Amino acid sequence: KNEVEQSPQNLTAQEGEFITINCSYSVGISALHWLQQHPGGGIVSLFMLSSGKKKHGRLIATINIQEKHSSLHITASHPRDSAVYICAVYSGTYKYIFGTGTRLKVLA
Amino acid sequence: DSGVTQTPKHLITATGQRVTLRCSPRSGDLSVYWYQQSLDQGLQFLIQYYNGEERAKGNILERFSAQQFPDLHSELNLSSLELGDSALYFCASSGGQGGQPQHFGDGTRLSIL
Fold this sequence. Notes:
heterodimer; A: mainly beta; globular; B: mainly beta; seven-stranded mixed β-sheet
C-alpha cells in the first residue's frame, strides 16, 4: 500500500463543475504539497500547507492533520484546468513522498 | 515561471550511451533535487544536493551520478543507458536543506532507442 494515496485516479468533468481531488496519507507529516503537471510535462507548485485551508483564485486546498487527509477543490472548472494533480507529503528530514496523481480532464 | 532551468528539454539517444542533464536552481536556492518520472512508476526521488554537498539519496542507480557545482548548478549523469531509463527527469530547488522541494523545472524528456 502506498503511503500517499489519491482519489480518484482519473476524473472527467464538464466545464463549470466543482471538482474535488482527495489525498490520504499514512505517515506523520509536517507539510503537504499540491502540484499540477500539465500535458507538456512541467510541474507547478500550487499549495504547500500544514494546517487549515489555503485559497488561490479558483483553487482551494484543505488539510485535516488528525484524519491524515487533504482535498484540492477547483471551483468553476475550465478546460485549461486539465492536468495531472499530484499530492506530496513532507514526512521528516529528506523524506518527501509523492502520490500517484489524479488525471483531470475538463470538457468544454 | 519557477526560476528553475533545465536543459536540454528533449534528448534522444541509444542504449549504452552516456548523457548529462543540467539544472540551474532558482536564484537564491541552495538545494537541488533530482527526480525521475517514468510511465509505470510515477515520480521517484533520486538525489539531493545542498550547497555543493550530497544531502540525501533515493532510488538512484549506480549507473547514475550527480554533482552540484560552486555556482549551484547541478548535473545528472546517466551512463550505460538502458531502454528502461527513458523517462522525464525533473530538477527542483529550495532555499533550505531539509528535503522539501519548492520550485520545479520543466523537465528533460529522455528517450532511449
